Amino acid sequence: MVKTWSSTPGDERTETVACALCGAREPAAHLAGRAPGGMPFSFVRCRRCGLVYQDPRPVFEDLRRRYGPEYFAYELANEENFFDLMRLGLADIAFDRAAAGLAAPRTFLDVGCATGMLLAWVRERGWEVQGVDVCRESAEYGERTRGVRIHAGTLAEARFGDGSFAVVHFSHLIEHVDDPRGFLREVRRVLRADGLAVITTPNIAGLQARLFGARWRSAIVDHLVLFSRSTLSRMLAEEGFAVEREVTWGGLAAGTAPAWLKRPADRLAKRWGFGDVMLFLARKA
């Protein structure tokens, strides 16, 4: 199985952490792996609430240095594929219908926006857009080539005002965040009272994760937390979001099964909720 792109960690500090969902320090060994270059890492499962997270993990100030020129090259090479997946995901949750009732101004923030391709597409559909990305090279490229405003850094560092956006979108981002609760709190702060959050992240309870274990493509050293539908739903509810729609997709990864088996597996994954990736549409409660 081909894994998601992962960095080659350098000389980084590490820390032992509590569960980001319930605060317990009751880890049980779950998955172990090796990063490119050979550095070992491990994911544990909280005995109390079931959240899977990396422990010990890199200190975030060291971790963010991984998102430099090499990561930008990966994002640039794959931007069209990622854009297509995000656009299909928005269609799956009927985003246009959900957003139709939002009052003006129609303001859209994409956190982890990479090179800004989704932002440019959303702007063409009549939205006022901004982005945030921790990779400076990606942010500068998006601003230069697409003319969209992208803040280089984290969401908190962008210092948006309260209630600045009607929609906050973040795809394959929350699993990289060292404090997902704090991140969701900041998302809620910058959302308007009627605002929507669109969240896409790997599904640790999906079929592929269960089949492949440590070889699962999202079990990588750059992911700090791996959510299931239940753990993400709980965190969203506790941080003031009401989930309105959710969908999963990806039954079997390309290359792991013949087409006659992959096609029905993909259809069933979407229908029964055991897909490799999950997408939530949540409203500020």
Q: Approximately what portion of the residues adopt beta-strand conformation?
A: 25-35%
Please report the number of helical segments.
Answer: 10
In whole angstroms, the N-to-C terminal distance is: 39 Å
Order of helices and strands: EEEEEHHHEHEHEHEHEHEHEHE
Query: What's the total count of β strands?
Result: 13
How would you sum up the major sheet? 7 strands, mixed
CA radius of gyration is 18 Å
Helix content percent band: 25-40%
List the quaternary state of the chains: single chain
How are the elements arranged and paired?
Elements: E1 14-15, E2 27-34, E3 40-46, E4 52-54, E5 57-58, H1 60-63, H2 69-92, H3 95-99, E6 107-111, H4 117-124, E7 128-133, H5 136-146, E8 149-152, H6 155-158, E9 165-171, H7 180-190, E10 191-202, H8 207-212, E11 225-226, H9 229-238, E12 241-249, H10 259-272, E13 277-284
Parallel strand pairs: 6-7, 6-9, 7-8, 9-10
Antiparallel strand pairs: 1-5, 2-3, 3-4, 4-11, 10-13, 12-13
Structure report:
By secondary structure, the chain is an alpha/beta fold. Helices cover 34% and strands 26% of the residues. It is built from 10 helices and 13 strands. The chain has helices at residues 60-63, 69-92, 95-99, 117-124, 136-146, 155-158, 180-190, 207-212, 229-238, 259-272; strands at 14-15, 27-34, 40-46, 52-54, 57-58, 107-111, 128-133, 149-152, 165-171, 191-202, 225-226, 241-249, 277-284. It has a 7-stranded mixed sheet, sandwiched between helices. Strands 2-3-4-11 form a 4-stranded antiparallel sheet, with no helix packed on it. Strands 1-5 form a two-stranded antiparallel ribbon. Helix 5 (136-146) links the parallel strand 7 and strand 8 (149-152). The radius of gyration is 18 Å and the shape is globular. It starts with 13 loop residues before the first strand and ends with a strand.
